[in-house]
Structure prediction request, 92 residues.
Amino acid sequence: MSFGPIVWSIVAVLVALVLLALLALPVLRAAGRTTTVLGAFTALVSDRGGLLRARLAGLRVRAGRRGRTGDSSGSPQVDSSVTVPVTGGAPQ
Prediction:
């Protein structure tokens, strides 16, 4: 029984598809890992950027208060002559 060229072509295409699948699976896994790492990195950079923006906003508020009050500490003034009794706490 003789196989014609069409049968050999079909066999060759099937073998090529199997080899392609065997080579493509590790590449797809690596791409998935890369996507996961990229997502984690993006989240980390976004968090750090948010913290930096919050810190800069706090510094701007403090600088604004310092310029307004003329106080070198930037903290509000406390009247130390006023005392508040402690109720229900441990003896001091």
